[in-house]
Specification:
six-stranded mixed β-sheet, binds flavin-adenine dinucleotide, 14 helices, seven-stranded mixed β-sheet, 21 strands, globular, alpha+beta
């Protein structure tokens, strides 16, 4: 006879641990669960995951966390996308927005009309037809109360302080019955069938459970050290394997985007919070020493450093399974690609969603386990391909790092996608794809990839009509953008007007 899972034990109290704990606490309203989160005092959290993508807004809403409360408690700001500086070549910049470009007209995607206009010699840019890109260029932001026009529909996310976010979730989760134990797990006892039976803490306490969630970060205390699930390395495609991170004083205005600046041997991020900047330099350690990386990062800060730079090594790749026996891994214990598109927290969300959708009973049916692992692996591969695309399309030749990126082989799944765009300007949307058409277009247009042809149906629009329609769309976007408040103004009025 199978029984319902009663006791869930989460190991780890970082972003992944508390996101999982609060989600399970909500789930326990439907199916009763006894949830314990165990966290070591002496093992630091990573703490640098501060940029998100739009599905994070909905995630928090579903957990019952009000937007104003989140902004206030975590010093958060709004994010319209990512500015890529010096990626194609030095002194060149483009924007990856969380929104579409223009409008689909007569069932033809908008970018084909832009390509048609370019073909006719018109001076147009795809980014002119995207409100959130224009808002970002002018450092403006607003949230539409009621959507009047599809051209004004854009997604947004947050930048937030990871430590404060974990505290906020902890307060909510413990209020909803999650037991919090401070203890370092030193040993794990398994049953004869290899399933985890109980954990043993440093103080000798035994912590038993039916289901164990590994949120122990890169250490993979259960999924790897105990169950030896295996890790697939992707460092032949993703050369950056270290990061150095530091906080610094705020800049004079709050930018509504993450800035990613390509450097000779990697790239640097800059994330604005209400009270400080989060900065980091991600680099390939075969070409850059830790000392040089730290010196470069410190030299590039616009305000004084507020913390000591911290070096974080990692191996790009993924755990071969996120679910093995009665252990489900969430967060960095499942692997890490790299932070370029702020996808790690989103992968935490989707792992939690899969756990809840396919919540097991005591039989731990292989059908569920295999299905979840297959979906997760596909999703991570899609994200990996999108990240590799950034390096592959760069035209920089100023270092061995960039020359290597251009000549390296890439996964065939990505090769096929690029080939399809070059041949037809089409974007193939695959199963479990996190990044939709607009994201891929922002890269192809941002890196100036020239497709051989576009959808001939775009040419059915006479040139005068094309000019007129593009002009109308652009001017509507400019007008809307001009009326919007600055991001600074919006954040302060949002915080003062809304009660958490
Ligand atoms: C350089 C860098 C930049 C990043 N930037 C972003 C970003 O901008 N956006 C994004 O989405 N993601 C980003 N990430 C990823 C993001 O930081 C993580 O996905 C997120 O913080 C989740 O981490 P975690 O909770 O899995 O692990 P951690 O934060 O490492 O937490 C692990 C927890 O496990 C506990 N623990 C470990 N071992 C034991 C033990 N034996 N007993 C008890 N407890 C134990 C620790 O005490 C800690 O509480 C970045 C990552 C890196 C490395």
């Amino acid at each position: 006879m199978t029984k319902a899972i009663e006791k869930v034990v989460i190991v780890g109290g970082g972003t992944a641990g508390w996101m999982t704990a609060l989600s399970l606490a909500k789930y326990a309203n439907i199916s009763p669960l006894n949830i314990t989160l165990v966290q070591a005092q002496d093992i630091e959290t990573i703490g640098v995951g501060e940029a998100t993508i739009p599905n994070f807004v909905e995630f928090n809403r579903n957990l019952g966390i009000h937007e104003a409360e989140l902004l206030r408690q975590t010093n958060a700001t709004f994010k319209l996308g990512i500015q890529f500086q010096d990626w194609k070549e030095k002194n060149h910049s483009f924007f990856h927005p969380f929104s579409d470009y223009g409008l689909n007209i007569n069932n033809v995607d908008f970018h084909h009309y832009v390509l048609s206009a370019l073909h006719h010699g018109l001076d147009v840019k795809l980014s002119d037809f995207c409100l959130s890109t224009q808002l970002a260029n002018k450092e403006k932001f607003y949230i539409a109360n009621e959507l009047q026009n599809p051209l004004e529909d854009f997604g947004y996310a947050y930048h937030f302080d990871a430590g404060l976010y974990a505290t906020l979730l902890k307060r909510n989760a413990t209020a909803q019955g999650v037991a919090h134990k401070i203890a370092t797990i030193e040993d794990v006892k398994c049953r004869v069938d290899g399933f985890i039976d109980h954990l043993v803490a440093q103080n000798g306490e035994m912590i038993s459970g039916d289901l164990f969630i590994d949120c122990s970060g890169f250490r993979g205390e259960l999924i790897e050290k105990v169950l030896e699930t295996g890790y697939e390395r992707w460092d032949h495609w993703l050369l950056c394997d270290k990061a150095v991170a530091v906080h610094s004083e705020s800049e004079c205005s709050l930018k509504p985007f993450t800035k990613s600046t390509a450097k000779a041997n990697g790239w640097q991020w800059s994330i604005p919070l209400q009270n400080r900047m989060g900065n980091g330099y991600l680099y390939a350690s075969q070409w850059e020493s830790d000392q040089d990386a730290q010196a470069q990062l410190l030299a590039s800060l616009t305000g004084s450093a507020l913390t000591t730079p911290r070096v974080i090594p990692f191996t790009p790749g993924r755990r071969k399974q996120i679910w093995n026996k009665n252990c489900f891994a969430v967060g960095l214990s499942t692997g890490f690609i790299e932070p370029l598109e702020s996808t790690s927290i989103s992968l935490i969300q989707s792992a939690i969603a899969k756990l809840l959708s396919f919540f097991p009973d005591s039989s731990f049916d292989d059908a569920l386990i295999n299905h979840v692992n297959r979906l997760h692996n596909l999703e991570v591969e899609r994200v990996r391909d999108f990240i590799i695309l950034h390096y592959k399309l760069s035209q920089r030749t100023d270092s061995e790092f960039w020359r290597h990126c251009q000549t390296m082989s890439i996964p065939t799944s990505l090769e096929d996608k690029i080939a399809l765009f070059k041949a037809s300007s089409s974007i193939e949307q695959r199963e479990c794809e996190s990044f939709e058409m607009a994201s891929w277009l922002s890269m192809y247009f941002g890196f100036d990839v020239k497709p051989k042809r576009f959808d001939p149906r775009a040419n059915l629009m006479p040139l005068d009509a094309l000019k007129h329609n593009l002009g109308m769309i652009k001017s509507h976007i400019n007008q809307t953008c001009n009326q919007a408040p600055s991001h600074d103004q919006f954040v302060s009025s949002f915080l003062s007007n809304r009660k958490a």
